[in-house]
């Protein structure tokens, strides 16, 4: 599974309250949530993300509350993959559950700049900054996580299991 996109970069400790502010948690349509993703940090984020981006984060990306809507909002806004130095565990799992690839990639925040073209091989964990020619190694995803992502997340996976009964 290869993913390509322009880098959109944020720093350390980007929390779920900033990813999708609490005032939008009453929204249930993923597309509506996506319209408000990261608006407090970058009011132009949704414009940048609409054609598909790779979100670059620093340490502790997705810290804060356990709101699943944060990962949903990013995916719906056009984020194809999140690469970060480290993740808050609950955000990481929520991202996988909604079908948004998230990989820890040590050094990514120093090796990618806003607008760089990034490719990610989810199977091997290879991350290439095509703009600079730099290659990094992210923690590869296990096969069962890759399968969940291919199916669109946990809910589609479970629905598929129920349908096979």
Task: Name a few traits of the molecule.
single chain; 165 residues; alpha/beta; Aconitase, domain 4; seven-stranded mixed sheet
- Count of beta strands: 7
Q: Sheet with the most strands?
A: 7 strands, mixed
**In CATH's first tier, which class applies?**
Alpha Beta
Q: What number of domains?
A: 1
As laid out across the biggest beta sheet, the strand order is 4-3-2-1-5-6-7
Shape: globular
Q: Report, as a whole number of angstroms, the end-to-end distance.
A: 28 Å
The amount of helix comes to: 25-40%
CA radius of gyration? 15 Å
Number of helices: 8
Average predicted local confidence, pLDDT: 95
Quote the CATH topology. Aconitase, domain 4
Sheet-strand content, in percent, reads: 15-25%
Question: How would you briefly describe this protein structure?
Answer:
The protein has 8 helices and 7 strands.
């Amino acid at each position: 599974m290869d993913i390509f996109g322009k880098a959109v970069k944020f720093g350390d400790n980007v929390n779920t309250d900033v990813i999708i502010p609490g005032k939008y948690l009453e929204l249930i349509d993923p597309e509506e949530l996506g319209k408000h993703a990261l608006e407090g940090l970058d009011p132009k984020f949704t414009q940048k993300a609409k054609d598909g981006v790779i979100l670059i984060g620093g340490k502790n990306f997705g810290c804060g509350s356990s709101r699943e809507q944060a990962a949903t909002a990013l995916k719906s806004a056009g984020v194809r993959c999140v690469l970060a130095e480290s993740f808050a565990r609950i955000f990481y799992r929520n991202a996988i559950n909604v079908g948004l690839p998230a990989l820890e990639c040590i050094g990514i925040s120093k090796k990618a700049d806003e607008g760089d073209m990034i490719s990610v091989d989810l199977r091997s964990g290879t991350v290439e900054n095509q703009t600079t020619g730099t290659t990094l190694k992210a923690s590869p995803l296990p096969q069962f996580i890759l399968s969940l992502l291919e199916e669109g997340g946990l809910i589609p996976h479970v629905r598929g299991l129920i349908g096979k009964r």
